[in-house]
Write a structure and sequence with these properties.
Distance between the termini: 19 Å
Strand order of the largest sheet: 8-9-10-7-6-11-12
Order of helices and strands: HHHHEHEHEEHEEHEHHEEEHEEH
Largest sheet: 7 strands, mixed
Oligomer: single chain
CATH superfamily of the largest domain: Aldehyde Dehydrogenase, Chain A, domain 1
Length: 338
């Protein structure tokens, strides 16, 4: 298949996901995904599919992205690329599949048990559109030529050892942070609220920590995000909130609480579900030092109008472009250089 044919196949999938005529089928997917994984509410699954259709599978965006590289129209040699997918948010492994296929290689998918239905539905629909795409689902990846894997720090050590003799990208735990400077508006805070609460905070691009000026007042932030409080009515989220709140109360840990989101001072980046850690900074130099110290564990940074170098705007944490690669590793370049 030519590169153009591969791009058109994905663009057609994007059109399918966004077409109102397919609303009933998408809703059926969302309901079945929810029955498999109760974190995947139908609303969140439909939001994830809309994002994939809008941001990843737009024909012009696909052409712009692939235009950054010298991708052979018909590669002289292709490889079988295994991909071990995460399952923390709906269809989170789709970008790896997209990158592998557009690079000209074959994709062998080991799906997460938490997200097997939705990814299978997407793959089947894609193969229905273009049966010649080299994509298959497998339980084992013994015969692949190279590997892309996403998992925890513990699983990463296993992957590194098991696939030590094959080219690989192994991703570990990462989280995302927000930098506040005291000039935030209510609109900024609301956008930041979505960066925190979208997908219940389960994604590596969800904000789990604030860096704030010393003596920062969180009242306006809490007042502004009050409309997002419906998240509390999700049973799993509520259980996490109740547990964390009780721990902080029993241990007399200093914290703020608005009834669905807890803020507590902590130097760590990764906070529990329903909790945001915060850390004060004294100056821009102090902030830069703190960020630099944790750079290899940060997925993305958000700030007001992206004032901090290398950051994105509030509200854009869950809107990565096609070339915003996980862990900052250029997956397409890796695949093209095999």
């Amino acid at each position: 298949m030519t590169l153009e044919a591969r791009i058109k196949a994905f663009a057609q999938l994007g059109s399918f996901l966004l077409d109102e005529k397919n609303k009933e089928e998408i809703e059926l997917w969302a309901d079945k995904a929810f029955h498999q994984n109760n974190w995947f509410t139908p609303e969140n699954t439909k939001k994830a599919l809309q994002s994939i259709g809008s941001y990843f599978l737009n024909y012009d965006s696909l052409n712009q992205w692939t235009g950054f590289y010298n991708i052979p129209d018909k590669p002289q040699k292709t490889f079988s690329i295994g991909v071990i997918m995460a399952g923390n948010i709906p269809a989170v492994g789709f970008h790896d599949l997209l990158t592998i296929v557009l690079s000209g290689h074959g994709c062998v998918c080991k799906l997460s048990s938490q997200d097997s239905f939705l990814m299978t539905a997407l793959i089947n629909k894609l193969l229905e559109i273009e049966p010649n795409l080299e994509i298959r689902i497998a339980d084992k990846l013994n015969e692949v030529d190279a590997l892309i894997a996403t998992g925890s720090d513990n699983s990463a050590r296993y992957f590194e050892y098991y696939f030590r003799n094959k080219p690989h990208i192994i991703r570990q735990n990462r989280s995302s942070v927000a930098i506040l400077n005291g000039e935030e508006s209510e609109e900024d805070f609301l956008k930041l609220g979505y960066d925190i609460t979208d997908y219940f905070g389960l994604g590596c691009r969800n904000i789990s920590k604030f860096y704030v000026p010393e003596n920062y007042d969180f009242i306006r932030f809490y007042d502004t995000i009050e409309p997002l409080g419906d998240i509390f009515y999700h049973n799993k989220y509520k259980n996490n909130y109740d547990y964390n709140k009780s721990i902080y109360l029993v241990n007399k840990v200093h914290h703020y609480d608005n009834g669905f989101l807890i803020l507590t001072p902590h130097e760590n980046l990764v906070s529990p579900i329903s909790v945001i850690f915060y850390e004060p900074y004294k100056s821009l130099e102090d902030l830069q030092a703190k960020i630099s110290l944790n750079q290899n564990k940060i997925q993305c940074i958000v700030s007001k109008n992206s004032w901090y170098e290398g950051s994105q705007c509030f509200g854009d944490a869950q809107k990565p472009k096609l070339w915003d690669y996980a862990d900052g590793i250029d997956t397409m370049a890796f695949l093209l250089n095999l």
